[in-house]
Amino acid sequence: MPATLALVAHDAKKDAMVEFAKRHEDKLAAFDLVGTGTTGGRVLEACPSLKLSRLKSGPLGGDQQLGAMIAEGKLQGLIFFVDPLSPMPHDVDVKALMRLATVYDMPMALNPSTADILLRSARLTGLQTTSETPEVGSTAS
Ligand SMILES: O=C(CO)COP(=O)(O)O
């Protein structure tokens, strides 16, 4: 079964996501893709051959839907082009998504150059994670 990979981009980074998706269309075709609403729409418009399911838009719960997928072991990788220069009404959701990706040791790329590396390493095998529930409270700091 193909690994599931999420594509998300803030508004200022959506053109970069479209460019990324076009450049890697062949590699992305190996994954079941999922995207937040607007990002997913832009990617599908540019690359209609890709298998991509759209969730809600980020500010309306899309980031939280992705977080739930991580917690349930239904997501294996996250490419999230974040905009660090604009205030976001749903900043807490963005942080929560990144937090869960970190808790579950999920491959996560936050900018195009890291996403290039992630896809290169995932090309042949699909994204691998332990998909085990991490121990909570094992670190004191
Ligand atoms: O806001 C987002 C991520 O935080 C992305 O949502 P959209 O893809 O719907 O714009």
Entry keywords:
about 140 residues, alpha/beta, Rossmann fold, 5-stranded parallel sheet, 6 helices, binds 1,3-dihydroxyacetonephosphate, MGS-like_dom, lyase, Methylglyoxal_synth_AS, EC 4.2.3.3, Methylgl_synth
Q: Could you write a compact summary of the structure shown?
A:
By secondary structure, the protein is an alpha/beta fold. Helices cover 41% and strands 14% of the residues. The model has no long low-confidence stretch (mean pLDDT 91).
Could you describe the 3D structure shown?
By secondary structure, the protein is of the alpha/beta class. The protein has helices spanning 14-23, 25-28, 37-46, 62-71, 91-103, 112-122, and strands spanning 4-9, 32-35, 52-54, 77-81, 108-109. It has one domain (4-122): 3-Layer(aba) Sandwich (Rossmann fold). α1 (14-23) packs across α3 (37-46) and α4 runs parallel beside α5. The longest helix is centred in the last third of the chain and has 13 residues, at 91-103. The model has no long low-confidence stretch (mean pLDDT 91). Bound molecules: 1,3-dihydroxyacetonephosphate (13P). The site of 1,3-dihydroxyacetonephosphate (13P) has 13 residues, from α3 and α4. Catalyzes the formation of methylglyoxal from dihydroxyacetone phosphate. Substrate binds at residues 10, 14, 36-39, 57-58, 90. Belongs to the methylglyoxal synthase family. It comes from Roseibium porphyridii.
